[in-house]
Amino acid sequence: MIETELVQPRPGDGRNIDQTLGTLRGEGALQEIGKLDEARPFETRPYRAEATAEQDSYYGLPLLKETVWKWAIPAYFYVGGLAGASAAMSAACLLRGRALSRVARAGKLIAAGGAVTSAALLIQDLGIRRRFIYMLRVFRPTSPMNLGSWILTAFGGAAAGALLPGRAGAAATVAAGVIGLPLTSYTGVLLANTAVPLWQGARTTLPPVFVASAAASAAGAFEMLPLRPREQRVVRRMAVAGKLAELLNDVAMERELHRVERVGLPLKNGISGALWRGAKLCKTASLVLSLWPRKRRWGWIAAGVLGNLGALATRFAIFEGGKASARDPHATIAMQRG
Description:
Order of helices and strands: EEHHHHHHHHHHH
Shape: globular
Strand order of the largest sheet: 1-2
Radius of gyration: 25 Å
Low-confidence stretches: 1-7, 44-53
Helix content: 55-70%
Mean pLDDT: 83
């Protein structure tokens, strides 16, 4: 019989082993981690003792893992929605003829620039460029993330082709407009398909919120452009319709979340609550400026800037609110019971 030597772990190695309960044995006892993944560093979280734990939770600890997404993801939600809605509006204006040619041309430029920026933001979050390519190795329509990768790739090719002259460019513009519509909504579907209480609680209204916000941000971008009087009237109607739909969908999402009061708290408290209130304030002010008659050039620019700030703050509010919701074990339990 071969005896195994008892190996004492080094102090401070991070394994926190109680010597009175167990010992490490074998050749892997002194194994250490050489280098953490820089793209996904581990985070230490305080442990709540049983004596301080609240009822209806597992020792006061979160039941879900907080998302590892970084700031680039909510920024991508905004940029992708802006690009997709701009492409759709550009295709609609192109079908109307030369009367809206400036709007159509601006929409194509925004769509192409947004496609490149969206890919860069995704790669920034993934940490390694190859990971984005690996997502295209399979085609799985049941996975919103995989389907979204294919939508973004197809949209980027169509948006680039839309810059070509002639019939080829016109055909690519229409294709980019068609593909741009699911690009504005799939991110909301992606969030709603998770177990995060805030995102799951708004599963029916979150995609429409993203679509309306994308349309409002695209119309706001067009408002800041120097346009002819007829083009300004058309853009103004698009802006008013998009911003009004955006505010109405925000109210609908709040009502859906308030069915379980604990789930909707992140949009009232903390940094996510401040972002949500700021977003609604910016969007309301932008709608008022769009409705204001006979405003000067600065009024159009202010309406567009405030509308886009509101759309960006909406994405970050929902993102930060989801992270706070995942950290709350009571929200998870209340969502399941509700």
